[in-house]
Design brief:
Strand content: 15-25%
CATH class of the largest domain: Alpha Beta
Organism: Bradyrhizobium forestalis
Pfam families: NBD_C, SBD_N
Bound molecules: adenosine-5'-triphosphate, the ligand O=C(O)[C@@H](O)C(=O)CO
Protein name: 3-oxo-tetronate kinase
Function: Catalyzes the ATP-dependent phosphorylation of 3-oxo-tetronate to 3-oxo-tetronate 4-phosphate.
Oligomer: single chain
Family: Belongs to the four-carbon acid sugar kinase family.
Length: 424
């Protein structure tokens, strides 16, 4: 297998978002969980997205795991590696976008790396280096209240300067609009000044196509699914990849019981949970009881198991920003997050042992904890439920399963029923 594109995603939902985008753009794509073991049978593909759970871990660990993934991808012929980050640039001043970018850049000897989280299909646009989420700057969006990495600065040049050892430049929209040669010239100018990375503006998909053409000539880029779209279209338009029509199926139906788990506290997920209450039983976990170890996961299982035969259920830890802040003040941000993720993983594991074969999970960290516990090594990409969220079919796992891993902010108000309708 010679890869046209290698990707390293810093969380599992982000990885399936990117795998979905690449698939829709004509690349045969598989998503792996971590660096694949040698005996994992992978189909012949154009792109592999290695999913890491490296967004919120210590920076040194994120660097070493990303470098291991890069080595594996380059070893399979990937000339270009995309480091997939969140379209809302989720990170803290301690990392991990800057440190991972610096390490991968050093490994491949890239002079200046293009960086953009723009993903217009989901309302993420970048102008003059400022990230907008819908109509508002990042720091006024719900991301200001994110439980793990609240985002308080929409100027990504400033944000990345605080994380990276290299200087950060800007390639503005006026340059992008002038086309690929103008971007090449600006990038060369920045590289000539010793500037090692540049935030590049993008508002429309056509901007990402221009960016993709230039990025594909380099060894490394950093961004969300938008730049993935640009790279994929560039690989197809330059004939490096033969466009494959995206498969609209994930194979034979798996049947079995269905359940949903929500650990995301995003505004979108809170709305989706509220809407799900109308169509399925919903259990709201008590997050404080999870942290103090008072049998909350067992309570959830006792509640869920008798109901599953009747139809899907939803178990949610999600709370409002005020409640999240109060819990974190009492127990610490990382301890609270970790305990809740592990409780979700415990619940998922027992649900699968009880016959659940169709599982919807909301939240990147939550999905990471669940998929790790289920020991699923990889996924094939099926139909799209919502922008950035495909149906996934587990490969190499103990049970034949369908999953949907929803990024916290993605999906329409009826996401849970939309997902279950497509997961047969
Ligand atoms: N009620 C709660 N109070 C505090 N923290 C919570 C609560 N419920 C969940 N969490 C934690 O908040 C974090 C949510 O992160 P997660 O990545 O799962 O969702 P997200 O950030 O909205 O999604 P994404 O990363 O895909 O955008 C997890 O660590 C989770 O355990
Ligand atoms: O880019 C995004 O917003 C998502 O794919 C994601 O990474 C959320 O965790």
């Amino acid at each position: 297998m010679t890869l046209a594109l290698g990707c390293i995603a810093d969380d599992y939902t982000g990885a399936s978002d990117l795998a979905n985008t690449l698939t829709r753009a004509g690349l045969r794509t598989v998503q792996t969980i971590g660096v694949p073991a040698d005996d994992l049978a992978l189909p012949e593909v154009d792109a592999v997205v290695v999913s890491l759970k490296s967004r919120s871990i210590e920076a040194g660990l994120a660097v070493s795991r990303s470098r291991a993934a890069e080595a594996w991808l380059r070893g399979r012929g990937a000339g270009h590696v995309l480091f997939k980050i969140c379209s809302t640039f989720d990170s803290t001043d301690a990392g991990n976008i800057g440190p991972v970018m610096d390490a991968l850049r050093a490994d491949c000897g890239e002079a200046a790396v293009l960086v953009t989280p723009a993903f217009p299909e989901t309302g993420r646009t970048v102008y003059q280096g400022n990230l907008f989420v819908g109509a508002v700057p990042l720091n006024e969006s719900p991301l200001k209240d994110h439980p793990l990495n609240p985002m308080h600065d929409s100027n990504l040049v400033r944000v990345l300067v605080r994380q990276s050892r290299t200087q950060i430049g800007l390639v503005d929209l006026a340059t992008v609009t002038r086309g690929a040669d103008a971007v090449r010239a600006r990038l060369a100018e920045l590289a000539g000044k010793g500037i090692g990375a540049a935030i590049i503006d993008a508002v429309f998909d056509r901007d990402l196509e221009t960016i993709g053409l230039v990025a594909a000539e380099h060894r490394l880029s950093v961004g969300a699914s938008g730049i993935g779209l640009g790279l994929a279209r560039a690989l197809v338009s330059t004939g490096k990849v033969q466009s494959a029509s995206p498969s609209s199926e994930t194979g034979a139906p798996v049947g079995g019981l269905a359940a949903c788990l929500a650990g995301s506290c995003s505004q979108a997920t809170l709305q989706q949970i509220a809407n799900a209450e109308r169509i399925m039983p919903v259990l709201h976990l008590d997050p404080a009881r999870i942290i103090t170890g008072s049998g909350e996961a067992q309570r959830a299982l006792d509640w869920a198991r008798p109901r599953l035969a009747e139809g899907p259920v939803l178990i949610a830890s999600s709370s409002t920003p005020d409640q999240v802040a109060a819990l974190q003040a009492r127990h610490g941000r990382d301890a609270a997050g970790h305990a809740i993720e592990q409780a979700m993983a415990d619940i998922a594991e027992t649900l699968v042992k009880s016959g659940v074969r169709r599982l919807v999970v909301a939240g990147g960290e939550t999905s990471g904890a669940v998929v790790d516990r289920l020991r699923i090594p990889g996924f094939l990409v099926g139909v799209e439920i919502a922008a950035g969220v495909p149906v996934l079919r587990a490969v190499g796992a103990e049970s034949d399963m369908l999953l949907a891993l929803k990024s916290g902010n993605f999906g329409g108000a009826e996401f849970f029923s939309d997902a279950l309708r497509l997961m047969r």
